[in-house]
Amino acid sequence: MTTQIFVNLPVKDLNRSVAFFTQLGYTFNPQFTDEKATCMIISDTIYVMLLTEPFFQTFTKKEIVDAHKATESLICLSAGSKEAVDEMIHKATAAGATIPNPATDHGFMYQHCFDDPDGHRWEFVWMDPNGIPEHQG
């Protein structure tokens, strides 16, 4: 069996989050969707569980981080080209995301990011495997 990853994120308004990520082109698994949570499909092996904050809290005794004020994680996904990175950032901006930083271009790697309505940071990166500099150790 291939290893799968399920990233769990707390959200304040599940319907708002579903609408936001739908505008970015993502789909959701109805088998794992109800009024408390949904399963957003990133790929055949990557999923994001968007959980209402009260439901998320049932999985931990720790305080839920306000992602508008603190960073708990940075979610980084690969893209097939620089243009694909820019397209995703454009979709996110149109859907209401905020852009915290300008794009960075290192030649072999191009990266840009946005913060979703709950403040979670999403990074998209394109890398040219033939252009990665050799490690100088």
TrEMBL record:
Name of the protein this chain belongs to: VOC domain-containing protein
VOC domain: residues covered: 3-127
InterPro entries in alphabetical order: Glyas_Bleomycin-R_OHBP_Dase (IPR029068), Glyoxy/Ble-like_N (IPR053863), VOC_core (IPR037523)
Stored Pfam families: Ble-like_N (PF22677)
Signal peptide (from-to): none
Source organism of this protein record: Taibaiella chishuiensis
